[in-house]
Design brief:
This protein has 214 residues and is of the alpha/beta class. The chain folds into two domains: 135 residues, Response regulator (Rossmann fold); 66 residues, Arc Repressor Mutant, subunit A (Orthogonal Bundle), CATH 1.10.10.10. It has ten helices and six strands, in the order E-H-E-H-E-H-E-H-E-H-E-H-H-H-H-H. Strand 5, helix 5 and strand 6 form a beta-alpha-beta unit. Helix 8 crosses helix 9. 38% of the residues are buried. GO terms for molecular function: DNA binding. Pfam families: GerE, Response_reg. This is DNA-binding response regulator. Keywords: DNA-binding, Phosphoprotein.
Length: 214
C-alpha cells in the first residue's frame, strides 16, 4: 500500500508539531511539509504536490480561505481539509464554496481527526460531527446554495455520479460501483462542476442532497 503524503499549514508551531505526532501514529501517512503562512503554503503545495493538505483558517496576513482560493487558482490538485477552531456557519460555507474537501475542528478527539484524515486522503468528503446541523440547514434551503438549479440539464449518468458524490465516494469507488473507468468518472465530475458552478466535492454533495439525489 502506498504511503499518503500530507502537508500541515498552521501559524502555530506547537499545533503543527502535535498534528505531526498524531499523523506519525499511522504508518500509512507521512508529513512531507509544513508551512506557517499563506505564501509559503501555496508555494510548497505546488512544489510538493501532497495527497492531502490540512489548512488552518485563522492565519495572518493571509487567512485560510484566501490560501485555499490561491491554491485552487494555482491548480493544486491535493485534497484540502480545513482544520480550525472556527465553527461559524459563514466560515464553513465559504470554505466549501472555495473548494475545500472537508472541514474539521481542532477540538475533536485526536482518534476521530486521524480517522477522518485517512478518509479524506482516500478521496472521501469529511465533515466534523458539529457540521451536521449546518449541512442540514443548507439542504433545507435555510442557507444559500452557491449553485444555480441545473437539474433539468443533467444526464442520467451525471445524476448517478451526483448520488455517489453525496455519499462521499472517491473516483475509484464510484468507478467500481457504476462499472465504468475511473478516467470516465473524472470527466463526468469535471463536467458537473462546470455545469453546476461547483468548486468542491463537498459542495456537490450538498447540491445533490438538496435536490433529492442524496
Amino acid at each position: 500500500m502506498s504511503i499518503l503524503r500530507l502537508m500541515i499549514v498552521d501559524d502555530h508551531p506547537l499545533f503543527r508539531r502535535g498534528v505531526r505526532q498524531l499523523v506519525d501514529m499511522d504508518p500509512g501517512l507521512v508529513v512531507v511539509g509544513e508551512a506557517s503562512d499563506g505564501a509559503e503554503a501555496v508555494r510548497k503545495a505546488v512544489d510538493l504536490a501532497p495527497n492531502l493538505i490540512l489548512l488552518d483558517l485563522n492565519m495572518q496576513p493571509m487567512d485560510g480561505i484566501e490560501v485555499l482560493r490561491r491554491m485552487r487558482d494555482a491548480r493544486v490538485k491535493s485534497r484540502i481539509v480545513m482544520l480550525t477552531v472556527s465553527d461559524a456557519d459563514e466560515d464553513v460555507v465559504r470554505a466549501l464554496k472555495e473548494g475545500a474537501d472537508g472541514y474539521l475542528l481542532k477540538d475533536m478527539d485526536p482518534e476521530d481527526v486521524l480517522r477522518l484524515i485517512r478518509d479524506a486522503a482516500h478521496g472521501q468528503v469529511v465533515l466534523g460531527p458539529q457540521m451536521a446541523s449546518l449541512l442540514a440547514s443548507v439542504v433545507k434551503g435555510e442557507l444559500p446554495s452557491s449553485a444555480d438549479d441545473g437539474m433539468s440539464s443533467l444526464t442520467a449518468r451525471e445524476r448517478d455520479i451526483l448520488r455517489t458524490l453525496a455519499r462521499g465516494l472517491s473516483n475509484k469507488m464510484i468507478a467500481r460501483e457504476l462499472d465504468i473507468a475511473e478516467g470516465t468518472v473524472k470527466v463526468h465530475v469535471k463536467h458537473l462542476f462546470k455545469k453546476l458552478d461547483l468548486r468542491s466535492r463537498v459542495e456537490a454533495a450538498v447540491w445533490a442532497t438538496k435536490h433529492g439525489l442524496g
